[in-house]
Write a structure and sequence with these properties.
The structure is a single chain. The chain is mostly helical. The protein folds into 2 domains: about 15-95; about 100-155, no CATH class. The chain has helices at about 15-75, 75-80, 110-120, 135-140, 170; strands at about 85-90, 90-95. Strands 1-2 form a two-stranded antiparallel ribbon. β1 (about 85-90) and β2 (about 90-95) form a beta hairpin. The longest helix is centred in the N-terminal third of the chain and has 60 residues, at about 15-75. It holds the Pfam family Phage_Mu_Gam. InterPro entries: Host-nuc_inhib_Gam. This is Mu Gam family protein. One of its GO terms (biological process) is DNA protection.
Amino acid sequence: MAKRVKKTVVTGITREQAEQAFADYAAADAEVQTINAKMDVEITKIRTKYASRLADLDAVKEDTFTMIQAYATENREELFAKKKSIESAHGTFGFRVGMPRLKTLRGFTWAAVLTLCRELLPEYIRTTEDVAKDKLLADRANEEIAPILPRIGVQVVQDETFFIEPKKESDNEPRHSTAS
């Protein structure tokens, strides 16, 4: 099991130390942005370089898949009498059984199935209840609702998170004024 690294709490920081730390943070953030931008450009070039060949190969795979599937379907009884898959010189192909699922019979819709199931198999009908949190939040200032919230065991809270937004290069450039 991996051990968690305990974060040390730093205290007694002066304004100058905080400003220097912020400068270091902003410089690191700017370099990260620059490196990510360079990586994106290089990745885009690589994708462009190989896009045509990849498209050609995908077309070949799609066409040959269709051919192999047609062969397997046409010769299904002969090839797959005992096994669901066939070993070939280049790999294995065959038919896989999917997960069981329900499908409506011809002429039935899920709404009709629900109605009939209510009547014939009521234990297979789900009824889900859940708190309408969005409505409670919207009505939290309502004089009738607000006093009841603690009685039902809830309170409205807003978490506060610390953030840092370093200024970008363009933010630090001096503004040219037209006044002389």
